[in-house]
Amino acid sequence: MADRLPVTGLVAEAWRLAARSFVPGLRWLGALVLASGLYTVALESASGGGSVLALALLAAVFCAGVAWSLSIYRTMLGQQTGSFLSLAHANISIYTAFLFVSVFIVFFLGILPGILLEVSGRTDLGAETDPAIVQAAIRDMLPTPYGAVLLIACALGLWALCFFAIRLLLVGAATVRSGETLVFRTWPWTKGHALRLGLAALGTHVLPFAVAVGLNAALAGVLGDGSVAGFLRGSIGALLLAPFILAGHGLAVSALPRLAPAPGPTEEIASAA
How many domains does the chain have? Predict the structure, then answer.
């Protein structure tokens, strides 16, 4: 187990792995792009996101994404281990854990501005106050010490989510390598390495995600409205996120042998199969 992770080495290896796994996973990327476009059309339709069709297409997006991830991990690891169900189980477990943590953070950050406004003396604001007036009051409060408290709390909330994500970075790669669902069993493996993994993630997660969001926002105003535009928004949005997903998987695979314990007998048998 490495004592000190090579940040630039991890980033370079992650992108090399991403490039190597792009072509083998094209069919599943195509399925994800198609499902994302159709889901966006259904979501923006008159019936909205609660329709049966939209929910079915959301499930299709999830399944295509898991199948693509499985293909990526297998190519990067160089072994045909893991299964769709084990990786889907791991993803659902992570999503549930993130939802649980996010609810508490969002709830706290949602009530904190009201508390700070009350403490700062803005007693003229109440439950019936126009939201625009409340937002203006919050903006006026930002340059004050109360605003600093709010900004620090938001930064800590974001840090907590990022820390949680970094500590669970190896889940997908470890699940595919071992052939069984691993979630919090990978938590100890990243202990003491969150900072360097976070620095590496700037080049594999943050940068490609920021580029994807920026390009998607620029295209949104060009595509216009309608079903065709909705399909293009969803499909292009999924395609723009491909480098983010590929490089993110690459970082996990690059860090896995440096941080994980040696494969046990079960993993060795699965790898040889």
Answer: 1
